[in-house]
Design a protein that fits this description.
With 286 residues, the protein is an alpha+beta fold. Helix content is 61%, strand content 13%.
Length: 286
């Protein structure tokens, strides 16, 4: 009787182990299938993005050719206006048609580039900076701003670049410094350009939350001389900052992003000719 009970118990144990192992293998198989489907989805997505990129490049070439044709016709009409007004009048109709074609090409390019990326909300501008500051303050970032010089209107693309500078730098200050971080935004307007600065005390804010100060930091968390030297001599890099640097370069700007030892982060962007910069060839348009 006892032997039968032992065999029965062993059979139950083996059966339980078999079911557990079967369930484990089924979960592993399901996980492998899920990973395979994820891989296929990623490959399809990459292929789709590559196809969209080719379309964007082709439409961009067409749009550039269309705009170049408009510029050439406009130049010809300007020269003709001084010598043959009738010819200039006839050329105006052709110029209007070419301009409409160029606009259509640009809209196709815009739709292809924005598909799945941009929503229907209007692009932010400098007028949106106040809302950005309010949102950051509500999240715990202490934002103050200063402005010198006389502000002037900028092209929409230039305003978007300046807004992205504020958005990226203030967002990074909050992410790295945490609530209680102080950030100062500065605008210095000149006759032709703009200097934007954003400085924060994220490192010092983290020390304050930990109950530490710069002079009384425990050795385990102290800043070494190597850390200070590295912070002073190295540029700060990252996907957000690299993208921001590319945006700034489109409008002839120069960006400098550095850590300030024991304090936080400093971002400085100088646009020497932002007022008249066309954001394409770096040629001032007056």
């Amino acid at each position: 009787m006892t032997l039968a009970v032992v065999f029965l118990a062993a059979a139950v144990v083996f059966a339980a182990l078999w079911f557990v192992e079967r369930a484990r293998r089924r979960r592993a198989q399901d996980a492998r299938e899920e990973r395979e489907w994820d891989r296929i989805d990623r490959e399809l997505e990459v292929a789709e993005q590559a196809g969209r990129f080719r379309i964007i490049v082709e439409l961009g070439d067409v749009a550039v050719a269309s705009v170049s044709r408009v510029v050439s016709q406009a130049e010809g009409m300007r020269y003709a206006a001084g010598t043959d007004p009738e010819t200039a009048t006839r050329s105006a109709a052709a110029l209007e048609t070419s301009a409409r074609d160029a606009l259509a090409d640009l809209r196709r390019l815009q739709n292809a580039a924005a598909d799945g990326v941009r929503d229907s909300a209007p692009a932010p501008s400098l007028h949106s900076a106040g809302d950005l500051f309010r949102v950051m303050r509500e999240a715990g970032l202490e934002v103050t701003s200063t402005e010198t010089g006389k502000r002037y209107e900028l092209r929409q693309g230039a305003e978007l670049v300046v807004f992205r500078i504020l958005q990226t730098s203030l967002g990074n200050a909050l992410d790295h410094g945490g609530p209680g971080t102080r950030a100062t935004v500065g605008f210095a307007w000149t006759a032709d350009g703009l200097h934007v600065t954003v400085e924060d005390d994220g490192i010092r804010a983290a020390a304050r939350r930990a109950g530490l100060d710069r002079d009384g930091v425990d050795k385990a968390t102290a800043y070494s001389a190597d850390d200070d030297l590295r912070a002073v001599t190295e540029f700060v890099e990252g996907p957000d900052l690299n993208e921001l640097r590319d945006r700034v370069a489109l409008y002839g700007g120069v960006m400098d992003a550095r850590s300030v030892p024991g304090v936080g982060f400093s971002l400085s962007v100088v646009f020497p000719a932002l007022r008249h910069h066309n954001g394409v060839h770096g040629v001032p348009l007056r």
